[in-house]
Amino acid sequence: MSKKKSTKRGKYEVFVLNDDTHSFGEVISALMEVCGQNRFQAEQCAVITHNTGQCSVFIDKHDISMEIYEDLVKTGLNCKIQKQ
């Protein structure tokens, strides 16, 4: 991730959404690789996503959050981003 100067103010939150396509292992691997979560964090997010339908996995400035969102989408995960 590059350190870009954010053009929009405020924090943005990235959510992973539950689907019937990806295994727990795939979600865990993507969260560890893209979001920098450790295994425990990624496992907990995968369980929360499975049980509730979504989980917040990243919060930061718009530009950085958008990069994370796009990288997660590239892995095939269903995601959404919204302003806090």
Overview features:
84 residues, alpha+beta, Ribosomal Protein L30, Chain: A, 46% helix
Please summarize what this structure is.
Helices cover 46% and strands 25% of the residues. With 84 residues, the chain is α+β, with helices and mostly antiparallel strands. The protein has one domain (11-83): 2-Layer Sandwich (Ribosomal Protein L30, Chain: A), CATH 3.30.1390.10.
Describe the protein's topology.
Blueprint: E1 11-17, H1 24-35, H2 39-52, E2 54-61, H3 62-74, E3 78-83
Antiparallel strand pairs: 1-2, 1-3
User: What series of H and E elements makes up the topology?
Assistant: EHHEHE
Helix content: 40-55%
- The secondary structure category is alpha+beta
Query: What share of residues are in beta strands?
Result: 25-35%
* Radius of gyration over all CA atoms, rounded: 12 Å
Shape: globular
**Total helical elements:** 3
Name of the top-level CATH class:
Alpha Beta
Largest sheet: 3 strands, antiparallel
Describe this structure in words.
The chain has 84 residues and is α+β, with helices and mostly antiparallel strands. It has one domain (11-83): Ribosomal Protein L30, Chain: A (2-Layer Sandwich). It is built from three helices and three strands; from the N terminus they run βααβαβ. The chain has helices at 24-35, 39-52, 62-74; strands at residues 11-17, 54-61, 78-83. It has a three-stranded antiparallel sheet with strand order 2-1-3. Helix 1 (24-35) crosses helix 2. It starts with 10 loop residues before the first strand and ends with a strand. The mean pLDDT is 92.
